[in-house]
Amino acid sequence: MSVARRTPCEEAVAVGLAVLAAAHLLTAGWMLIAPAAFAEVVGLGGDPGGHDLRWAAAFAAAQGIGMILALLRPVLRASVLTAAV
């Protein structure tokens, strides 16, 4: 029984997906836990705890979860990266 090895390109895509997933999930968590601090740092106008910020957090979290799934299932990588762009 042989173990399938990843090519350097596949390794780079996996590392990139992991970094992007972590960035999306951390940003989503920041938006949900401290919306005022997020709005101040990013420079958003209006109500920092508003409805739009929660939608943005949900979208970022969904993209992060999708990227984690793409790490586990390489067949999803192209579609997840396309959706993230």
Which residue ranges are poorly predicted, with pLDDT under 50 across at least 5 consecutive positions?
Answer: none
Assembly annotation = single chain
Number of strands: 0
What structural class do helix, strand and pairing data support? mainly alpha
Major sheet description? none
Strand content: under 5%
Radius of gyration: 16 Å
Count of helices?
A: 4
Q: What is the general shape?
A: elongated
Distance between the termini: 38 Å
Helix fraction by DSSP (H/I, runs of at least 4): over 70%
Order of helices and strands: HHHH
Mean pLDDT equals 86
What does this structure look like?
The chain is mostly helical. It is 75% helix and 0% strand. The chain has four helices and no strands. It has helices at residues 8-33, 35-42, 51-72, 77-84. Helix 1 (8-33) packs across helix 2.
Helices and strands in order, then pairings?
Layout: H1 8-33, H2 35-42, H3 51-72, H4 77-84
Question: Descriptors for this entry?
Answer:
single chain, 85 residues, mainly alpha, 75% helix, elongated
Concise structural overview:
Helices cover 75% and strands 0% of the residues. It has four helices and no strands.
